[in-house]
From TrEMBL:
Pfam families: Dabb. This is Stress responsive alpha/beta barrel protein. It comes from the Bacteria. It comes from Rhodoglobus vestalii. Residues 2-97 form the Stress-response A/B barrel domain. Gene3D superfamilies: 3.30.70.100.
Length: 99
């Protein structure tokens, strides 16, 4: 099992704009579970504390293998969801590890 963690800084600086962005990202990404083989779990959540020092939003997903993560990364439905993410974010950091 591979856990995929992605953190983003949002374009919006205000609380209302950030909520709209996180909701849009979650709506685009979370339904991919069950639509992309090997994607077992996925959640998108906003940062809850220390907003000045932390990233704004996180994605945590689990994939059956490194190969399944690669399929997810290039799957057309993920690419389409990625357009929503890119429209709402300005910075990205990620890490993948075995669990």
């Amino acid at each position: 099992m591979i856990r995929h963690i992605v953190m983003w800084k949002l374009n919006a600086d205000d609380v209302a704009g950030q909520k709209v962005a996180v909701d849009a990202m979650a709506a685009a990404l979370e339904p991919l579970v069950g639509q992309i083989e090997g994607l077992e779990r996925l959640s998108v959540r906003p940062n809850a504390a220390n907003s000045a020092a932390n990233w704004d939003v996180i994605l945590v997903s689990e994939h059956t293998s490194v190969e399944a993560l690669a399929v997810y990364a290039t799957h057309p439905k993920h690419v389409a969801a990625g357009a929503v993410v890119k429209a709402n974010t300005r910075e990205r950091a990620a890490v993948d590890f075995e669990v």
